[in-house]
Design goal:
Order of helices and strands: HHEEEHEHEEEH
CATH architecture: 3-Layer(aba) Sandwich
Shape: elongated
Distance between the termini: 76 Å
Strand content: 15-25%
Helix content: 25-40%
Number of strands: 7
Pfam family, one: Redoxin
Oligomer: single chain
Organism: Mucilaginibacter antarcticus
Protein name: TlpA family protein disulfide reductase
CATH superfamily: Glutaredoxin
Radius of gyration: 20 Å
């Protein structure tokens, strides 16, 4: 008679349950992605800041904060603007949030940098509750109107970096670890130029 419960069968059940949990639970998927970030996957875009800047100027974006104050990116020419589009239900967005918060804390007092996180669901109650529950200090905004398709194709997270001249310096779709030293060197180079 064949044994029904073997180590192999038990291991198969455990692996199957883990796969199901990761597939259907955004927090579990985010946890796995965070682990992959820590071992070196999901590097942010880093280009040589000594090269000529791209010629394409970023379109002006109008954003509103939870208090109803509207800002326009064009009014902040002369600053490096880091924009991250995200949602509370997006596992890659959740995975990169700790690194975004760390980066924000590093640069928040630097008047030459503006870090903007944009909740694409336009639900301040949900996004503010999420940030508070996680202990993040990131500022959150909503878009006023639609974002141009050349900046955002609908994939989140999407990060757009606008240099001091108003040109698009970098654009990245997908999660990234923004605490990477090479990224800090890149961002510092944009700030210094």
């Amino acid at each position: 008679m064949k044994k029904l419960v073997t180590w192999s069968n038990a291991l198969n059940v455990v692996v199957t349950v883990l796969i199901i949990v990761v597939l259907f639970n955004p927090q579990a998927k985010a946890f796995i992605l965070q682990g992959l970030m820590k071992v070196g996957f999901f590097k942010p875009p880093v280009e040589n800041t000594e090269q000529a800047r791209p010629a394409s100027l970023a379109p002006t974006l109008s954003l509103v904060d939870p208090e109803g104050k509207t800002i326009n990116t064009a009014d902040h020419k002369g600053r490096v603007i880091f924009i991250n589009l995200w949602a509370t239900w997006c596992p890659p967005c959740i995975a990169e949030m700790p690194s975004l918060n760390t980066m924000y804390l590093r640069y928040r007092d630097n008047p030459k940098v503006m870090i903007v996180t944009v909740d694409v669901d336009n639900d301040f109650n949900k996004s503010l509750l999420f940030l508070k529950r996680k202990g993040y200090q990131l500022p959150v905004y909503h878009l006023v109107g639609d974002i141009p398709q050349d900046l955002f194709t609908g994939s989140i997270p999407t990060t757009i970096i606008i240099d001091k001249t108003g040109a698009i310096a970098a654009q990245h779709q997908g999660a990234a670890d923004y605490t990477d030293d090479r990224f800090y060197t890149y961002l510092d180079g944009l700030i210094a130029n």
